[in-house]
Amino acid sequence: MPHATAAWLVDNSALSFSQIAEFCGLHILEVQAIADDTAQTKLTGRDPIRAGELTQEEIDRGQADPDYTLKLSRMPEQQRRTSGPRYTPVSKRQDKPKGILWIIKNHPEITDGQISKLIGTTKNTISAIRTKTHWDYANLVPIDPVTLGLTTQREMDALVTAAAKKAGIETAPDIAKLGEDRAALVAELQAEREAAARAAEAAASGETAPAEPTTALERGEALFRK
After folding, report:
1. Does some domain include residue 111?
2. 153 CB neighbour count, 10 Å cutoff
3. d(CA 156, CA 162)
4. Is residue 215 part of a domain?
5. How confident is the model at residue 207 (pLDDT cuts 50, 70, 90)?
6. Is 0.70 surpassed by the pTM of this model?
7. Left (φ > 0), alpha (ψ -120 to 50) or beta: where does 143 sit?
8. 135 lies in which domain range?
């Protein structure tokens, strides 16, 4: 639901990416990917106003002030759950084994219990993938669960940090460096978007505009997939 809500806000408001990311609990690059249609699948927007989670007045305040933090009217149904497994849409459930395999290969320090809680699956399924006895193991391709929409980048980063700390693995500097790289890419992407807008205005007025760079976008897409 956070990704679908972000898609709706991108299409139906003038809120900044950072405002949408903070409201939906996503990383700003995830919102960037949604806006640029670089996500793996085109999302169907979910209206937070109709769901009673946000008011038009609150959106108007955010549009008027880029530094304003949107406030929830009420928590989404999914987030108000206090027990039970994480809900995953039927269309994404077949992707869970791919996400599990990715975590096992890239973060072996994460326990089965943590994986189960993160993407909402059973320990039996995780064990079968670890031991390569899963019925469809031969056809599984490891894919980042964030890319699959099974969890958020914030949750994934927090889990990796916690699991690494518990296992005595020092990965904090790498994670910090990745965060710095993301921030730099976001700044570049925003600068290029402004340059593209200026180029469009120049073209409309018959002026010659400088060539638009694409390296930051390509690097941003690669980092987002990572």
Report:
1. yes
2. 20
3. 10
4. yes
5. low
6. no
7. beta
8. 90-156
DSSP-assigned states of every residue in 136-196 = TGGG-----TTTTTSS-HHHHHHHHHHHHHHHT---HHHHHHHHHHHHHHHHHHHHHHHHH
Same domain, 182 and 135: no
Tokens 């904090």 — which residue? 172
In a domain, 69, yes or no: no
CA 182/CA 18 separation, integer angstroms: 13
Contact 8, 45 (CB under 8 A): yes
Q: What's the pLDDT tens digit per position in 122-158?
A: 889 999 999 999 998 999 999 888 877 788 777 888 8
> What is the distance between the alpha carbons of residues 101 and 139, in angstroms, rounded to a whole number?
11
pLDDT reported for residue 148: 79
**Number of domains composing the chain:** 3
- The half-sphere exposure of 171 on its side-chain side, counting CA atoms within 13 A, is 19
Q: How confident is the model at residue 27 (pLDDT cuts 50, 70, 90)?
A: confident
Please indicate, yes or no, if residue 75 is contained in any of the structural domains: no
Domain boundary among 103, 122, 156: 156
The domain boundary, picked from 64, 81, 114, lies at: 64
> What is the mean pLDDT of the segment spanning 160-187?
65
Average pLDDT over residues 33-56: 74
